[in-house]
Amino acid sequence: MKPTLKKWLFRLLGKDPEAVVVCFRSGEDALAGAMCEEIRRLEPSRRIFEVRLEEAAGVRRKFRGYRVGLAAVLFTGDAQYAPLRRAAFRLAPRKILAYNSRLERHHLRLSNWIASWLFLRGVPLDRIWLRPKWLAPWRKDRTERPSGHRSIEGRPARGRPVVAVLSPYLPYPLAHGGAVRIFHLLREAAREFDIHLYAFAEGDIASADLEPVLQFVSRVCLVKKPRYREPRWSTLAPPEVCEYDSPEMHRLWRARQGAVSQVEYTYLARYGGDVLVEHDVTYDLYAQVRARKQTLSAWWDWWRWRRFEQRAVRRFARVVVMSEKDKALLKADSVHAIPNGVDLLRFRAEPERPGRRLLFIGSFRHFPNIVAYRFLTEQVLPLVDDVELTVVAGPDPWLHWRNFTGLLPPPENPRVRFFEFVADVRPLYVECNLAVVPTLESAGTNVKVVEALAMKRAVVSTRSGCAGLGLEHGSTAWIADSAEGLAQGIQKLLADARLRVQIAAAGYAHARRRFDWRAIGRSQRALLRELAGDSVQIRPLGVRDLEAIQNIQAESPQAAQWEPASYLGFDCRVALVRGEVCGFIACREAGPEEWEILNLAVAPAHRRQGVGLRLLESALDRKQVTWFLEVRESNREAVELYASAGFEVVAARKNYYTGPVETAIVMRFLS
To answer: How far apart are alpha carbons 420 and 408 in whole angstroms?
Structure first.
């Protein structure tokens, strides 16, 4: 009886009694098409109509004879489709099924107006029902903070001072610049200290790949990262700070052992310690976002980051930043600039191959890289003809893309070759002709720029992309901020091989002078040594030291056996531990801008404690020249020490040594 009355009523009103579905294509074609396809799957038995932007004015007239049961509408930030969305509300105001750019859907209702408003503002569906704990303490969908941890022993401790390091992630694989920096500087610090690493893990802590880190870290403690379930706007502290608030990690960090404790990243500053490493001045990054967006939410992010960061800086004895620019921003006596670097032994320059290939590297987990990728592919690339672009976007790039942009992945571009995580990017540098860094918002310094310089590839970058690295436009890089300026640089450098090679060579020389991880590691160890207390004293050789030198030589058969008194005629220095001479190094000038290391030996009781490295680096730091040395072929431990400091094998001298007769390996260090 009821269906019959229903049909009779709608016929009386002049409408078809069967409800129809209207899909409003109020967004880009690919996204709107995906919405319509989903509606067809959800409502296979209904008549479905699609309405495009050009039909917005006649929507009510077109559907006058239909009963609209559902109106699917796409809501994105594209303002040109606003007339079509208004037409949908006029046609069926109580039947709107809203879709966002993630293709999440939500029925717009006055009864849940807060959720509907948040959805239209672009808040992800799984977060629109979240309410602050201070507003709705009874809600059950709260932040999950896992208990328990995994502790793994690594390289045996050597009785040296312990440095405890707290990181928001395990610094391996080397999928982004932060991991590259932490990995290399931990390895450098481990030459003089025993390292205990405390890190968060986003996945299963039992399956984390620890082997590369355990080669130089004595202990690793892993804690699962909390699942943060508070609205991002609702806390005075920045949400990134709250995301890493773990009672389990607080407990472990309070119980840590160590002469020095170092915290990586500003958002972990609440844990406290001696050294805070600011990979970027975060409020500077959000100031750039605020200037671009000019919204209340952007101002709120900037204001609370500035408040938090300025207070955090004052709580640490030392603060490390990436550049002099960042140091000037923080304006505190405790701030030291220790730049990002590159492994010059691994990133070796190779001759360029003919072509027009561009390379962009930037993990999408860091949102400025998504902004840069869109700028490059949507604005710069269309202005450049006949080029191939290779992109390395890191693990799970489209997950980070959707979380930040709210958009589906862009359609495939035949000019773009896209990679996610790449374990070794060196072959990609070798095959490219230019490295592009179109970063619009950035803080700190970019490791990828330094790697490109080390591979002797010319860099085309925005000022933000190469900030703090000391590069100059037209000399060590091509620097421009507009799409037109970047496109001009790409076209000019690809067309002018001589200029491209000239800029690449100048950039390479700049990288060798300033960004070798080994030299940067010396700066970091000096800072840690200052806080931990320096147990090693290095001073010039004196007559009273000759007996100790003779004893050390006698206990070091692989070292050169010189008459101790002869060292008084050379540049010779001794190392003392608790007042006892435990090692020495002897050098002399060999020619213009050339010096030679004659001998280096450490008493057996003090070996593998970093004494030999301290002596070697004391010489390298005093004289910025080309260094040479010879070492017995069988003395592998010494060869490894010299190689780790940057010496390279350049020749071999047969039967150079006597007692016993043995080949000498000739090594060179270029300052």
So the answer is: 16
Spatial distance between the Cα atoms of 457 and 348, rounded to a whole number of angstroms: 11
By the 8 A CB rule, do 403 and 431 touch?
no
Torsion over CA of 223, 227, 230 and 232, rounded to 10 degrees? 80
How far is CA 492 from each of CA 358, 380, 410, 436, rounded to the nearest angstrom?
13, 14, 29, 14
Contact partners, residue 303, CB within 8 Å, separation at least 6:
none
Neighbours of 336 (CB within 10 A): 16
Tokens representing 647 are: 């010496």
Beta bridge partners of 93: none
Q: Which residues pair with 539 in a beta bridge?
A: 574
Q: What is the value of pTM for the model shown?
A: 0.81
Integer Cα distance of 456 and 502 in angstroms = 10
Find where tokens 């489209």 sit. Answer: 398
Asked if residue 585 lies in contact with residue 597, where contact means CB atoms within 8 angstroms, the answer is: yes
Quote the tokens at residue 67.
Answer: 């009963």
Topology at the third CATH level for domain 150-337: Rossmann fold (3.40.50)
Q: Does 3.40.50 match the CATH number of domain 9-127? A: yes
> For 241-289, what is each residue's pLDDT tens digit?
999 999 999 999 999 999 999 999 999 999 999 999 999 999 998 998 8
357-361 and 388-392 beta bridge pairing: parallel
Topology alike, domains 357-515 and 535-670: no
Domain locations along the chain: 9-127, 150-337, 357-515, 535-670
Two tokens, residue 307: 């408040």
Contact predicate 96/73, CB 8 Å: yes
pLDDT score of 14: 55
pLDDT of residue 1: 47
Residue 309 in contact with residue 282, Cβ under 8 Å? yes
Beta partners for residue 277, in sequence order: 264, 320
Q: DSSP assignment, residue 635? A: -
Low pLDDT (below 70) residues in the chain: 1-17
178's torsion region: left (phi>0), alpha (psi -120 to 50) or beta?
A: alpha
Q: Which residues contact 528 (CB under 8 A, 6 or more apart)?
A: 161, 163, 189, 192, 193, 260, 262, 275
Which of these CATH numbers, 3.30.70.1230, 2.70.70.10, 2.60.120.10, 3.40.630.30, describes 535-670? 3.40.630.30
Taking the C-alpha atoms of residue 209 and residue 202, their distance in angstroms, rounded to an integer, is: 13
Q: Which CATH class is domain 357-515?
A: alpha beta
**Length of the chain (residues):** 671
CB 99 within 8 A of CB 108: no
